[in-house]
Amino acid sequence: MNxxxxxxxxxxxxxxxxxxxxxxxxxxxxxKTLIATLMSARTTDKITIxxxxxxxxxxxxxxxxxxAKVKDIGGIIxxxxxxxxxxxxxxxxxxxxxxxxxxxxxxxxxxxxxxxGVGRKTANVFLAEQGHGTIGxxxxxxxxxxxMGWTKHEKQHEVEQDLMKLFPKRLxxxxxxxxxxxxxxxxxxxxxxxxxxEIKRIK
Length: 203
Fold this sequence. Notes:
- The chain is an all-alpha fold and 203 residues long.
- It contains twelve helices and no strands.
């Protein structure tokens, strides 16, 4: 696959996607961005965002959140999938940020993935939102990349490597946003496949 061709394809996908707010977008604090992204795993952004807003209204700073009971956090976020596990992770993550990082989220991949509930995808999406050139590989990113022939791999880190080789670094931080917005614009997999089939013909 030619890099310039892949960029043209990506830009065409971008044009076909609506400007939807994603879970990592629009927060006024790093810790809110990280926790909202964590909460969005296996849950749509449409569901995650209002629940995150409710949580952050109740606990408007990381210190308050770190003192909250797990069951109280769970009661607020129970609309997201795996809410009990996520409530425990949010509680523990908040405590660690206060204790080890003075309430600030580290902008370091290795430190991020040590935090409870923060996997490779969550860390990369968070860092991309903060302006770092990283690619968060979720189900949308993986499936579309495979459909487009940008990768043949299944594992996140291998897909990341393929996309990093194919696309210029200036676009790395945008890739997840473009593909997730496209995926959410067209919920039907058959419709997505139909559109991507046309875009794949771009030379």
